[in-house]
Design brief:
With about 60 residues, this protein is an alpha+beta fold. Helices cover about 40% and strands about 15% of the residues. It is flat and about 45 Å long.
């Protein structure tokens, strides 16, 4: 069964399990800092990465 992130988080909450989520702002990372983040995340067993993308466009 395919489970999206939201349902997966709800399921873990229901079972009183914790998740480790890393929020990434693409404007705040460089290639080298992202590489370091990935290495650290593998060691610390990150469950999810959330990439925040905001599209701003003029309203006409």
């Amino acid at each position: 069964m395919k489970m999206n992130i939201y349902n997966s988080l709800l399921e873990k909450k229901k079972n009183v399990q914790k998740s480790f989520v890393v929020l990434i702002d693409p404007d705040g990372v460089t290639a080298s800092s992202l590489e370091k983040l990935i290495r650290l995340s593998l060691k610390t067993r990150v469950d999810y990465f959330l990439l925040v993308v905001v599209w701003l466009f003029p309203i006409t």
